[in-house]
Structure formats: C-alpha cells, structure tokens
C-alpha cells in the first residue's frame, strides 16, 4: 500500500517535469516568432513572411498565394468604409428622391393627357432597354448582397435561407452579366448619334431641366439629363464589364493584387451607377407622368412630347408629312 502511494507520488511529480523538459512547440525562438506555434497571430505571420502560400496541384503557381499584405487592406476596406459608402449612396439617394417627391410632387402633363400620341421608341429600342434594365436590376441587387448581405439579409432570414439565396444571386450575377453587356453595346450603337453633347444641353442644365417651375428647356430626342444617363450607362457599364470579367475569370488577365484593385473599382463604379440609376428609375416612373409610356407601348402623349422634347417632335412631324405640317 505504502509502495503504491510512493509510486503514484513520484509519477505525479515526474509528469510536469518531463513536460517542461520536452522542447515546446509554443516556445518562441530567438526572433520572437514561432510560425508553427498552435496560436499564431495573422499579423505576426504576415510581418515575418510577407505572404502566406499554400501547396497546390494546378499549373498556375500564382493561385498558391493565400494571404498577402494588400489583401488585408482590401479586406479592411470591405469590412468598414465600403459598407458605409454603400449605405450613404443607396439610402442617401432614396432619401433625396423622397424629399424631392414631397416638395415637387409628380411632374404632370399640363392640362392633363391629350388624345393623340406619337411613336417615341420602336420595338427593338424598347427590347434593348428592358434587357439592359432588367439584367442591371438583378446585377445591382446581387452585387449589393455580396457587399452587405451578411449584415442586412442574414440576420433577417437566417443562415440556411441566406446561403441558398446568396448562391442563386451569385449565379444570376455571373450569367446576367452577358445580356447586360450586350444591351449596353446595342444601346451605344443605336443611340450614340442622339447623345452627342452640345450647347443646348448646357442650357438644359442651367434651367434645371425644367424640373422646377412650368418652363421646359428645348430638347431634341434626348435632353441633357438623358444624355448624362446614357453616358453613365455606356461608360459605367463598360467599366463594370471590364472589371467584372476580370473577376469572373481569375488570373487570366491579372494577378491577385490586380483583381483586388478590379474589385474595388467594380464596387465603386457600381455604387455610383446605382445612385444615378435610382434617379433615372424615379423620373421615368413615379416622378413624371407619361414618361413610362415611352418604354412600355412606345407611344407618348403629344403634349408630353411637346413639353419635354419639342424639337424632336417637330422633326418627327416634319418627316411624317411632306408639307412639314404635323400629322393628324
Ligand atoms: C458585365 C457586367 C458585370 C460582370 C461581368 C460582373 C461580375 C462581377 C463579379 C465576378 C463579381 C465578384 C463576385 C464575388 O466576389 O464573388 C462582382 C461583384 C460585384 N458586382 Fe458585378 N458584374 C457586372 C455588372 C455589375 C453591375 C451592373 C452592378 C451594379 C449595378 C454590379 C455590382 C457589383 C457589386 C456591388 C459587386 C460586389 C463588389 C465588392 O464585393 O466589392 N456588377 N461582379
């Protein structure tokens, strides 16, 4: 009995001693940093190694980089400023439009709708507009989900639903990029000749586009504001396609740093475009009576056309009757 107790006592004393004598994985070498320690702080690892690389079996060795310093800046930007910028642009624009609606109300056709209409956009133009607009809306929502979904949607619908929804939104973002890009190219080809800026546009902007008051500045097929929207779509859409396809086909065009820059540019341009398009969607629907007809049936009220696109209406009338008198 006494012998057994003595052995137990010796063993209890020996175990910590033996443990202390074994070379510890946690022990820091002379540099003060041990990369194989069980708890390595990410920042220490990066300070010591500059980048963390894994082992891969595919031929492209660039894919082996798992973490590099620029990635941290990129991640910090996405976790902080990007969320605030997104909220400021999306919510700020919605607040501004609501305020504008409350102050100005709906811009009405003076004296109410008339009985005669004029064809503003043919079937192909409307098809091209809706393909671009519909794919743009899904791209915007799915893009916003990448930026802020885990903060906004996840708490509302839970992890399982969020994961399913995000998966489908990501597929939509990838596949709808193609009709969107095609729509932007078609718009450029079909409408560019009507969208070359000129002096009349400056006057249109000087008069605030006739948004306040009852006077409407002169305009041909597209006024200064619509030309601005056209160039935002063409240049913004072009930039989104260039940066977006760079991200969609990783390493074909650039390296990790290039893709991080492409994503920052993609997110930034898309936010500016979302802000501008919210304004366009507002004025094309609830903001102005008669405007949506142009993209639905293609036929607009002649009184609407005379107020907002007087010179265009005169051109259409001049073409439709040999004498130059308005067609009845
Ligand atoms: C040709 C058109 C487009 C292509 C090829 C494209 C492609 C992509 C790709 C591959 C990503 C990265 C997705 C990921 O991180 O998993 C992305 C992110 C994103 N896209 Fe697009 N996209 C296009 C158009 C648009 C449009 C029109 C919008 C908005 C109006 C938009 C908004 C966004 C946003 C906000 C993100 C997230 C950016 C970030 O995480 O910082 N994209 N896009």
Task: Name its key features.
single chain; 328 residues; mainly alpha; Fumarate Reductase Cytochrome B subunit; 2 domains; two-stranded antiparallel ribbon; 3% strand; binds protoporphyrin IX containing FE
CATH class of the largest domain: Mainly Alpha
User: Helix count?
Assistant: 13
Overall mean pLDDT: 87
Number of strands: 4
Distinct compounds present: protoporphyrin IX containing FE
The CATH homologous superfamily of the largest domain corresponds to: Transmembrane di-heme cytochromes, Chain C
How would you spell out the order of helices and strands? HHEEHHEHHHHHHHEHH
CA-CA gap between termini: 121 Å
Helix content: 55-70%
Main sheet characteristics: 2 strands, antiparallel
Protein architecture, described:
Helices cover 65% and strands 3% of the residues. By secondary structure, the chain is mainly α. The chain folds into two domains: 33 residues, no CATH class; 247 residues, Up-down Bundle (Fumarate Reductase Cytochrome B subunit), CATH 1.20.950.20. The strands form two sheets. A two-stranded antiparallel ribbon has the order 1-2. Helix 4 packs parallel to helix 10, helix 7 packs across helix 9 and helix 12 packs across helix 13. The longest helix has 33 residues. The relative contact order is 0.11. It binds protoporphyrin IX containing FE (HEM). The site of protoporphyrin IX containing FE has 25 residues, from helix 5, helix 7, helix 9 and helix 10.
């Amino acid at each position: 009995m006494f012998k057994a107790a003595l052995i137990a006592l010796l063993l209890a004393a020996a175990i910590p001693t033996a443990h202390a004598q074994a070379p510890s994985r946690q022990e820091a070498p002379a540099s003060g940093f041990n990369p194989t320690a069980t708890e390595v702080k990410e920042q220490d690892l990066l300070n010591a190694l500059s980048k963390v690389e894994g082992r891969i079996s595919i031929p492209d060795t660039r894919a082996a980089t798992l973490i590099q310093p620029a990635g941290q800046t990129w991640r910090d930007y996405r976790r902080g400023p990007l969320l605030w910028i997104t909220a400021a642009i999306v919510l700020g624009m919605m607040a501004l439009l609501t305020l504008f609606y409350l102050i100005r109300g709906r811009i009405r056709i003076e004296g109410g709708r008339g009985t005669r209409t004029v064809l503003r956009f043919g079937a192909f133009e409307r098809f091209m507009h809706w393909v671009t607009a519909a794919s743009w809306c899904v791209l915007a929502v799915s893009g916003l989900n990448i930026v802020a979904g885990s903060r906004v949607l996840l708490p509302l619908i839970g992890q399982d639903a969020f994961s399913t929804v995000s998966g489908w939104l990501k597929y939509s973002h990838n596949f709808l990029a193609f009709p969107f890009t095609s729509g932007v190219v078609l718009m450029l080809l079909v409408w560019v000749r009507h969208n070359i800026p000129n002096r009349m546009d400056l006057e249109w902007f000087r008069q605030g586009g006739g948004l306040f008051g009852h006077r409407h500045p002169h305009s041909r097929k597209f006024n200064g504001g619509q030309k601005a929207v056209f160039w935002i779509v063409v240049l913004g859409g072009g930039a989104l396609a260039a940066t977006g396809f760079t991200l969609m086909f990783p390493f074909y065009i650039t390296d990790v740093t290039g893709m991080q820059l492409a994503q920052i540019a993609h997110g930034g341009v898309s936010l500016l475009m979302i802000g501008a398009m919210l304004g366009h969607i507002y004025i094309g629907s609830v903001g102005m009576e008669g405007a949506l007809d142009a993209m639905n049936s293609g036929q607009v009220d002649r009184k609407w056309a005379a107020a907002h696109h007087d010179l265009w209406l005169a051109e259409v009338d001049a073409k439709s009757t040999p004498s130059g008198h308005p067609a009845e």
